[in-house]
Amino acid sequence: MIQSVEKKYNTLNEFSCYELIYTSGEKWIVPLDEENRHYQEILEWVAEGNTITDNGGGE
Amino acid sequence: MALSTIPFSGLGADASNQGVNFRNIIINGDMSIAQRGAGPSGSFGGSGYSEGPDRWRHSLNSCGNWQTSQSTDVPSGQGFASSLKLDCTSAAASLAATAEFQMVQRMEGQMLQQLKKGTSNAESTTMSFWVKSNKTGTYIVRISDSDNSRHIAKSYTINSSSTWEKKTITFDGDTSGVLDNDNARSIDIMFFLAAGSNLQSGTLATSWEANTIANQAVGQVNVADSTSNEWYLTGVQWEVGTSASDFEFLPYDVNYQRCQRYYQRGGNGWTGWAYGSNNTEMYCNLITPMRAGPSVSYSGSSTDGENGGRMHIAGVANYTITGISDTGSQTTTGFLINVTTGGNDTQKTAGIKGCPFIMESEL
Known about the structure:
- The complex is a heterodimer of chains A (about 60) and B (about 375).
- Chain A is built from one helix and three strands, in the order βββα.
- Chain A is α+β, with helices and mostly antiparallel strands and about 60 residues long.
- Chain A has a three-stranded antiparallel beta sheet with strand order 1-2-3, with helices on one face.
- The longest helix of chain A has 11 residues, at about 35-45.
- With about 375 residues, chain B is mainly β.
- Chain B has two domains: about 10-260, Jelly Rolls, CATH 2.60.120; about 265-360, Beta Barrel (Elongation Factor Tu (Ef-tu), domain 3).
- In chain B, about 0% of the residues lie in helices and about 40% in strands.
- Chain B contains one helix and 21 strands.
- Classes of the chains: A alpha+beta (about 60), B mainly beta (about 375).
């Protein structure tokens, strides 16, 4: 079960991936790839009404 | 002598249908590869991938808790060294209507075009496998086509308690529903272990039909009804045709590399630039191309080796990795990764020792 999802930004402050954390503590960095199963899970999680955290990409 | 005139027998036994020609559509059917570890170390009550043989996913809903592992309990004299073992750690004697439990292998459509599914030439296929359980009775194997929401299911019987038995099941070809020719999930091979009444209230779908939940697992026994229950599987082969050939043993390295398309550990050889006191941007080349851009995880181990490792700056020090801040530019062959460390020497070239990272692109 997903605990949280956060947008992550690269060194150029470009949105580049998600950080996905399950309630078990398992953590994955997830690419913006529609064929990735974790990415698909995030889309379903959002469709269920959950919100992705976005702390921006600034230093 | 021209090649076309060499008698078939002159090519030796490996040229026969019993040689390696990748006729087995299942990956890791002999359960020899277990990159997540042989296990077991923990139990699960939901769906996902865990310890034990690669490529086999547990799909579990309200059927107690289970452990998966790679076992050395195998059918005698068949050439297998490993099996998939399921062990019930928390029982569900009375199943909810929606309960279900299967071991599943999900497959890409581009790996399945030889089935000619959705055409008038659709091929029949045959599934053969070795199975063992203390729980005797009727079990279901279901093929699910997620591209077209169609399915077919057949039953087999475990006749003798705790005894290895070989089973063979033939499925008709499906003249409806062409499979997508891409890297996405198209077919699930599902070995049922338990099914609630919602999945058993109809008539088993022994011919291809539009997916009907009530027809998925009619007759399936409940292997989740006791913590004494175990279930073993090995030698799984799915091939085109109406009969089962001998199991196709692949060289270990070939089987390993096929599994790495979906899961691999790495780090050795990645290099990059330490640009901040705790950050290093690195360039990752994957060991073998993966199915899709992979998710990445840090193993948490700083022991240099197959399952852990550290950041190394030549002539300076080794630094403990604390995590991954981001990745980018993911392709099936590599990506950029920003690794965080307990400290480092900035403005220096850095490398990874060991394999502290996990890449995953399962279906």
